[in-house]
Amino acid sequence: MSQREKALIGVIMGDPAGIGPEITIQSVLSPEILACCQPVVIGDSRVLSKAFQSCSAEGKIHILQKLSQVHPNSDTINILDTKNVDPKQMTIGKPSALGGRAVFEDIDLAVRLANSKEIRGIVAGPHNKYSVNLAGIHFAGYPPLFAKLTGSPHAFNMLVAGSFRIVGATLHIPLKEVSQTLTTDLVFATIEAAYQALRRLNIPQPRIAVTGLNPHCGEEGLFGTEEETAIGPAIARARDKGIDAAGPFPADSLFSHIQEKQDYDAYVAMYHDQSHIAIKTVSFERVAGLIIGIPLVATTVGHGSAFEIAGSGTADPTSMKEAILLAAKSSGT
């Protein structure tokens, strides 16, 4: 693949006080990443420079004034400098309003660049929700932020580890609110978003399995009725639209053989832990998130900012690499 054919992928470091800057450096200099796309870091160059002190990686930083100035050299990190974080004003490993606002501003810029077709995809590094909220910005994770910035009614996080893909109809809400949040429209929107994402990943006829919410899928209403009132009707609507969706299935048995084979191209779960436990048990290090239901290509890492090890040089960049590779693949490269 020639340099001209490679997609420009905007990479956000995430919270500047976390492990994001370290794993960004290790990832964007990786030969496997440079073979499939041209990453461009979007963030403060001073944060990137400081992160080199805790990394074993070697490379040069090239500050861009505009994206047309990208240097394709394998030892060069191209960065669009946002100049929004002074490392001297924050403490590595500690949440701060400064770091939280930088996360929001970097994502906002990346979305504008993607909307104008200047970049083909966005990779969002590990954030800290408390930091962003300290900045006075209500933040419950990347999916609702991407939904707001793109004007989309819904955004969902499809977790991906190899051929295992799972997405939750709800994400960062209290468990006691899941039942009242689930509607036929919401579950159908999740199934449809998963279907469209799979098509972009070159799966022409996706098969999607949908879990129930209650033990044993409610067992004829003995343990709950959401399978009958919301989930089942959503599956029926999807099938009427030509989507090969099946279920609802009891979640405690649906994933019992997942390590040997995946019978479906994607799975739709009803709440955070139902989806996250399944895939993170199978392949924690490789998990990346594909934000679906929005008109842009956006991915994220499958873990948080890990303040407890930030600056130690021990962070594993595998999930960040997987997120970049997933963005490149989803963008058509």
What does this structure look like?
This protein is α/β, with parallel strands linked by helices and 333 residues long. It has twelve helices and twelve strands. It has two domains: 1-152 and 294-333, Isopropylmalate Dehydrogenase (3-Layer(aba) Sandwich); 161-283, Isopropylmalate Dehydrogenase, CATH 3.40.718.10. It has a twelve-stranded mixed β-sheet with strand order 3-4-2-1-5-12-11-6-7-10-8-9, with helices on both faces. Helix 1 packs across helix 12 and helix 8 (184-200) crosses helix 9 (226-240). The radius of gyration is 20 Å and the shape is globular. The protein starts with 6 loop residues before the first strand and ends with a helix. The model has no long low-confidence stretch (mean pLDDT 93).
Q: Which features does this protein show?
A:
19% strand; alpha/beta; Isopropylmalate Dehydrogenase; globular; 333 residues; 2 domains
